[in-house]
Amino acid sequence: MEKETKGVRTKRQLYQCAMKLFRERGFDRVSVDEIVREAGMAKGTFYIYFNTKSDIILEMLRQYDTYYDQIMAGLPDDLSIDEQMEEIVKGACRFTEEVIGLDLIRVLYVKQLTEGQEHPGLLNEDRALFRILSELLTAGQRAGIYDPALDVPDTTRLILHGIRASFFEWCSSRGQFDLTQECLYFLHTFCRGIYHTAK
């Protein structure tokens, strides 16, 4: 196993301290000074690893991607493609609710709206969720489950539109509904429309 460097440990500590403070007090109420104080580091150290406080959000997205890959790696081999898709969506909801939380999801959407393509969102084709869903759709086409005429990138984007819309509504309602049930209902409804034969 590759030895972890001091730089990696320092960056992770800054990230973890920032996330702790964000969850406790809200992103807008936490300063860089408070993050480094919590981490027991000099302010200059923060700027070695992050240009701004908002860059913590980018690191959060990288954690998101790692989490998706871990979910896929841990799935039993006998799960159907539909079941694998359900598990990745459930994992996305679980990570959003338990790790990110309402306040940081709000910050993420604000950044996406203000920074556009400079800020990598769920629809970015380089992101893990896009890649994983595309691979599952392609496998489903090859297995005769999904309509072979489907354009996989476009269909993946449509699924992510629905998931992102559910996340947005959950955020707007301050978590007043079950996010996992909402996203799974959307997924099941959508997938009925792309099956190669009626189920």
From TrEMBL:
DNA-binding region(s), chain positions: 31-50
Taxonomic superkingdom: Bacteria
Record SUPFAM superfamilies: Homeodomain-like (SSF46689), Tetracyclin repressor-like, C-terminal domain (SSF48498)
DNA-binding among keywords: yes
Keywords: DNA-binding
UniProt GO molecular function: DNA binding
Domain called HTH tetR-type: residue spans: 8-68
Matches recorded under Pfam families: TetR_N
Protein name per UniProt: HTH tetR-type domain-containing protein
